[in-house]
Amino acid sequence: MKEIFGNLLGLKASQIKRLENLGRRRIPTQAIVSYELCRDLSRLSTEIGRQVGLLVERSGKIAQVLVGGVDRIMIPDLREYRLAPDRLRGLRCIHTRADDMGGLTQDDLTDLSLLRLDLMAVITMHPDGSPAQIHYAHILPGASESAPYRIMPPIPPFRPEIDCLGLIQALEAELARQKVEEKDDASGERALLVSVFTGGRKAAMASLDELKELAHTANIRTIDTVLQQRKKADPRFLMGSGKLDELAILALHRGASLIVFDQELNPSQIRSIADRTEIKVIDRTQLILDIFAQRAKSREGKLQVELAQLKYILPRLVTKDTAMSRLTGGIGGRGPGETRLEINRRRARERIRRLEQALKTVQKNRDQQRRRRSRMGLPVISIIGYTNAGKSTLLNQLTQSRVLAENKLFATLDPSSRRLRFPRDIDVIITDTVGFIRDLPKELMAAFKATLEELDNADLFVHMIDISNPRHPEQIHSVETILDELNLGSIPVIRVLNKIDRVDPDTRDMLVKRLGGIAVSAISRPSLKPLSERLQAAVEHITYPGSP
């Protein structure tokens, strides 16, 4: 047994010795607690005026003795004990409580659900210190998220046998069956999407819908969404601690393997939330970086994504393993040497320097390509827009190309350039670019500098707008904001209102009038004729030195 956990201040040496002796007892596997141990717990708890508890393994061995206060008891960190979606913790908690305080409290039931204990049991006591009743509850597979447990009728302390081990094994068998069914109808990660917002609910809902699309693109199944409005974000957990406990219970009950926050989390918040919930936690930025890592195909794209990931991860490199702090300085070294964490950080910085050097070479190559195109005297048209607005589809239709085009966010990462000839024998270079998104992570902005600098060479922007998306006004604003941040606001822009086949004619006409764009359906080549004529008219006024 480990040392006694809890409040020992003011206890006599003889009382501490009796607490230690409790830890050497064993409990029959069919009983929650033996009558003799129940009686001794109650007497000692009454004598010291504090709650006394036990954490018991399935074999009946007592793993930990707990000492609390008058009205509550704390449970220590249990991360060393197994925990999986189809398994319980392997421990049950038993503690005392005065009879006039009732049986199981909401704190007991929260601990039962959050820690996935085998059982939670409370021994109520008479004023003379004798045990009154044993109240207990267990997790209930398949129950509603609001009450994922079952409170059983109390039993007398002199008959505590309930086939405890058989009950726990039956619960785990049902959990395992549910896990198999979840695997049959879903693949990949199962995530809860969370947004903690301080502004308007409408904007938060729209942002959460976009997060859901990002999750779909990353092959993550969204099993539920959670919103919490606060006047001010909590500096430690972002949301309130009570709400976070509810979130953890919901995640465990629904079999979630991941929690995705719509807001960017700082390193300490990620650690605090992950420690509290014992589930993998990421934020919106990390999700976007993961999508980019899946989508990057060219060497250049992979370099840029890896650089962005390392810059994001570097301040978040932490370790909880005490073995990581062992000396690694070598024989004869003095002082603490270099810890494993410091080695990891140093290697990450070295890799960042190498990637930045490699990307400088990429940038030079792009500069040479731009100069060659400039000598050819060909105008450059860049297709820009929010992600999944139809940029690659438009490029394919105009140039009869086969650039990858999918109904997913960030289907295209690497810019694709094609030569396009208009009917009046005017040639141009038309380029498809990486899609923009609201609050594009600064790590990506820095890493994709070489790609985004392609836009500097453009003579004309074609801004693709998905007018079938109810969030298109915010998307237009996001794209224009990024252009301003890149100092590209002076380049002329033609707005293209895409996906007109998904809106009614009256809405289309109203948007054309309001936004001043050309309405098209990128999947329908005939609808592109007005756009081709507009592009041809625009490039006729662009001249280069040496052009005919």
TrEMBL record:
UniProt xrefs under Pfam families: GTP-bdg_M (PF16360), GTP-bdg_N (PF13167), MMR_HSR1 (PF01926)
Record-annotated Hflx-type G domain positions: 379-543
Listed SUPFAM superfamilies: P-loop containing nucleoside triphosphate hydrolases
Cellular compartments annotated: Cytoplasm
This protein's record includes keyword GTP-binding: yes
Claim: GTP-binding is one of the keywords in the record: yes
UniProt keyword terms in alphabetical order: Coiled coil, Cytoplasm, GTP-binding, Magnesium, Metal-binding, Nucleotide-binding
Coiled-coil intervals: 338-372
Transmembrane segments: none
GO terms for cellular component: cytoplasm
Task performed by this protein: GTPase that associates with the 50S ribosomal subunit and may have a role during protein synthesis or ribosome biogenesis.
Oligomeric and partner information: Monomer. Associates with the 50S ribosomal subunit.
Family: Belongs to the TRAFAC class OBG-HflX-like GTPase superfamily. HflX GTPase family.
HAMAP family the UniProt entry points to: GTPase_HflX
Protein name: GTPase HflX
